[in-house]
């Protein structure tokens, strides 16, 4: 019997989602062998502040901390010893086999009798497919967005890949979903796919699949929701909008290649309307509405992503672009206000524009410009010029003002102006502190 050459790694991590009232969360050991993994509890806990994620140990002094770190070292030693021992008896060792021996069980579990599934019990993908079919009908009737349908189909593909990877199966019944389903799926998306997702993106995927699991709970296909307690939101990510001078630089840059110039114009159109890519792509002359006694020209439509109405007065720079492209062959043929490429090409050209215009981020590197940067710029521009939050929320087509609040950002210039007023009040021109008597 020729043994396979296998690689074992043991990683300790803090299970923050299971933190108790005292702030301490359990420390788990992830046993990985050639990409496949399982996890076990070490029986030790730590607070997020005391956990050293780089060195995988608890910070601090004292006997309790010392003993806890010794336990982690012992777990690693035991796992490695068990792995080496199993390699002497089995051609291929799996993480589950190592975990079983560590817990005092036989390396290979005895097969459990398969319970016949109830006639009415559906699988995860069957329920997912039913949901997608219903959503397709909503899209056909105009009650839902094609873009959202695309997201649902994309999420389904990820679920299919995860089931094949983690369960070695084409599908699973709801009753077979483990309590660690959310954590397992999250780890798969952020650690074990070819192109791991960012934390925020992965949690958004979990938020989508949670809706499918909830359907299973409502149908009584599963007793409890294994995703309860898992935080699907990834926290607030600070949005760093483009500076006004950077947008001006893009606006005034001369491009000899027509396709680049058209993408630049579409981006500027977004910067001064706040419309997302999907919405600018769908704009037609019918979206121009005359508002009020003065018959102001506004752009009015339902946002594709949220189906919430968004309305924006047409600013002069936008009016110029509408006039410029009125007789463009693409706009005439497709009844559009402005020519817009596919999302992939649009973003590809924007990266080229950022390079040509030397648009840099806060680290000094060329910024990875994309269509959503224009929307962030519009929100930042409006909020920093005194437009009320509620009005900006309506213009952006947000369902909730809480979403719009992510765009609120205190600029250095505003801080400088505020402190300058305080400085003038507290200090003389020579820099001396004024007497408190002068303040009445």
TrEMBL record:
Pfam families: Arm-DNA-bind_5 (PF17293), Phage_int_SAM_5 (PF13102), Phage_integrase (PF00589). The keyword DNA-binding applies. Keywords: DNA recombination, DNA-binding. Residues 235-420 form the Tyr recombinase domain. The keyword DNA-binding applies. Belongs to the 'phage' integrase family. This is Site-specific integrase. It comes from Ravibacter arvi.
